[in-house]
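Bug #77: duplicate submission created two jobs. Keeping one. Sequence:
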Amino acid sequence: MPLDTVFSFASFIAMFGWILLVVLPGDARVKLLTGVIIPSTLSAIYLVFIFLHFADAPGGFSSLAEVRMLFSRDELLLAGWVHYLAFDLFIGAWESRDSQRLQIPRLVMIPCYVMTFMLGPIGLLFYFAIRTAKTKALDLEAA
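Kept job's structure:
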């Protein structure tokens, strides 16, 4: 299968999950899709590309130069992209569930979702700030 097709498919299902998360965050089917099914599908795509292309790839994780060399192969660059898509959506789904449990308003969450989708850790940082302000605690059990 052409890499661009896999890229488009992975990006489409991730975007579909994010739209569902924003529009219908409380729906049980959306929680299952965005928290389990779509991240699992993306993880399976990632697994296939890592299994097929990682062993004979140049580079590694010991230095920035090795990481650059590793991601110079399109197959592993795509795997890295899918990795981001899977983890960002999984975190967004957790943010959604946790914010509903804490009764954080949905409109407050939309910027967090956008930031988590576009910039991953920055969105998570924003959510932690909102969560801490709401619960007055730093631990994840607070509510």
